[in-house]
Design a protein that fits this description.
Length: 119
């Protein structure tokens, strides 16, 4: 099992910044990708950004150039730096860790942290 704990959400004005942090614990063997997803009211959960253990990154088109993702493999943490926030970034943000082991793929999720961007 992998346990994920997020922190750093809150309320910010449009154009502002927030930094989300996620700390993972438990059996990290086989964990490759870690990242952040979000679910806005009335919408499906979507990928925001992900990073592999080797540093490869993937971003949603809507956040490219505004958000960055970083990872500390030694500390098992992944951070999302969000700049130039827009009201449409308002959502619950979830930390994700994906484990691939013996041909099986498993996703682990944090409890979610609310990000609200006011106009």
């Amino acid at each position: 099992q992998v346990h994920l704990v997020e922190s750093g959400g809150g309320l910010v004005q449009a154009g502002g910044t927030l930094r989300l942090s996620c700390a993972a614990s438990g059996n990290m063997i086989g964990i490759n990708s870690m990242g952040w997803y979000r679910r806005a009211p009335g919408k499906q959960r979507e990928l925001v950004a992900a990073i592999t253990s080797g540093g490869g990154t993937n971003f949603a088109d809507s956040v490219k150039g505004r958000f960055t993702i970083s990872r500390d493999n030694a500390r098992n943490t992944v951070d999302l730096q969000m700049n130039s926030l827009k009201p449409e970034d308002t959502a619950v943000y979830y930390c994700n860790a994906q484990k691939k082991l013996f041909g099986s793929l498993s996703d682990y999720w944090g409890q979610g942290t609310q990000v609200t961007v006011s106009s």
